[in-house]
């Protein structure tokens, strides 16, 4: 498993992003925003299993670099939503595409029952890594204890 994660995170960013000094930690944040859509800093922190201040610093850095934006939540103007700026989205999706293609190639030959088994197995693995007070919510988002 560590080799699998290491290989996925070693994919270099595309040329459009190369000058931005991005690291594997950015890849996980980008994946959440690409696949799950815009979110608040608190939501991202919960999903990443880190403190909101850590995500806020990361988002601030990426906002200054012109990759992410914070905007008011249309449903609650007191909240700020984090999203990828439209000009950066194609390059970020390109960076994520080798992992997406690999998952597709690995799962496509399986029938639905087998795919469910793989996903359930990975969820069990994740839950075993989580502390006894950690949990996963109804939308499969990791919620750390504390």
Can you offer a commentary on this structure?
The structure is a single chain. The protein has helices at residues 2-9, 15-18, 24-36, 41-48, 52-64, 89-107, 112-129, and strands at 68-72, 80-84, 135-136, 142-143. The protein is built from 7 helices and 4 strands. It has a two-stranded antiparallel sheet. With 146 residues, it is mainly alpha-helical. The chain has one domain (2-139): Orthogonal Bundle (Arc Repressor Mutant, subunit A).
Named CATH architecture: Orthogonal Bundle
Spell out the helices and strands N to C: HHHHHEEHHEE
Quote the CATH topology.
Arc Repressor Mutant, subunit A
User: So what's the CATH class?
Assistant: Mainly Alpha
Quick check: average pLDDT? 83
Total strands = 4
Helix content: 55-70%
Q: Which band does the percent of strand residues land in?
A: 5-15%
Let me know the largest β-sheet. Answer: 2 strands, antiparallel
Question: In which order are the strands of the major sheet placed?
Answer: 1-2
**What Rg is obtained from the alpha carbons, in whole angstroms?**
16 Å
Tally of separate helices: 7
What is the gist of this entry?
InterPro entries: HTH_MarR-typ (IPR000835), MarR/SlyA-like (IPR039422), WH-like_DNA-bd_sf (IPR036388), WH_DNA-bd_sf (IPR036390). The chain is mainly alpha-helical and 146 residues long.
How do the strands and helices of this protein lay out in sequence?
Elements lengths: L1 H8 L5 H4 L5 H13 L4 H8 L3 H13 L3 E5 L7 E5 L4 H19 L4 H18 L5 E2 L5 E2 L3
Antiparallel strand pairs: 1-2, 3-4
């Amino acid at each position: 498993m560590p080799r699998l994660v290491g290989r996925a995170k070693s994919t270099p960013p595309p040329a459009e992003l190369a000058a931005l000094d991005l690291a594997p930690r950015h890849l996980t944040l980008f994946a959440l925003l690409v696949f799950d859509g815009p979110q608040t800093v608190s939501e991202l922190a919960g999903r990443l299993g880190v403190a909101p201040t850590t995500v806020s610093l990361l988002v601030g850095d990426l906002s200054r670099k012109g990759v992410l934006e914070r905007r008011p939540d249309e449903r609650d103007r007191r909240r700020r939503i984090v999203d990828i700026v439209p000009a950066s989205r194609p390059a970020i999706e390109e960076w994520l595409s080798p992992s997406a293609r690999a998952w597709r190639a690995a799962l496509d030959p399986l029938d639905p029952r087998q795919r469910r088994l793989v996903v359930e197995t990975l969820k069990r693995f994740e839950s075993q890594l989580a502390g006894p007070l950690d949990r996963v919510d109804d939308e499969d988002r990791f919620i750390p204890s504390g």
